[in-house]
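Entry 14. Ran structure prediction on the chain below.
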Amino acid sequence: MKKLFTCGLLLLSLSGMAQKKANKGWVQLFNGKDLTGWDIKIKGHDLNDNYGNTFRVEDGLLKVRYDQYTNFDEQYGHIFYNKNYSAYVVIAEYRFVGEQVAGGPGWALRNSGIMLHGQSAASMGKNQDFPISLEEQLLGGNGTDPRSTSNLCTPGTNVVMNGKLITEHCISSTSKTYHGEQWVRAGALVLGDSVIKHFVFNDTVIVYNKPQTGGGNVEDADSTLVAAGRPLKEGSISLQSESHPVDFRKVELYDLSPYVNDPVKLEAVLRQLQKQGTKKKK
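Output, structure tokens:
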């Protein structure tokens, strides 16, 4: 298993081949037409109250918009796929567009995220700002300064890196900066509570393991859900609205759960995915 976790099988080309029909394990979480299969929770609003039509589908894109807001007023939102997963590869293609809504905090400029191993939408408090989860933080460049994407943030959680428990809220990845409104492909390899790797295009940019509850930086959460040290082996996947408009043109997942308890089969599946991805690029 150690060899499997440390090898670079996945990240050479996995993110490029999700369209290949032979890969029956791929699930299109976003169907390109509507929000079927998703639940919405926005701070201060009831479950599935899509305040201000924040999350919408237009022109085949899942869009996060604030044109019906007068002020952001800390109304952080998340759209949750309504099935939990434990072992998988998830990929999103995203771009930041337009201007940040009035009242959005400075740190949320060109900021969104893919929340991994999260709590359910229904279990969030009405005034809860972020789900207890592992955030693959998506950041766009400001046009001037270095600003990595696919960072790790930990609302209500902690992780282990290099054998050390990490309690910092956000840890920068090694990714390059993506300025402007260009499309970026990012995602994660998630294997229960064993290992999680974030990648951008073909590059692994951060690796961690032993995700667990116990961190801070979450308001109005059920205290029983943040008890320190509970391993996070599965959970929801959600996308953020943090005050800057963002488009998602693809959100897809390859379910690895049938193989995760058999290292030989799991490695074979990852090798096959890599091989198919390489062929697709030629």
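The longest strand covers residues 203-213. Will compare against last week's run tomorrow.
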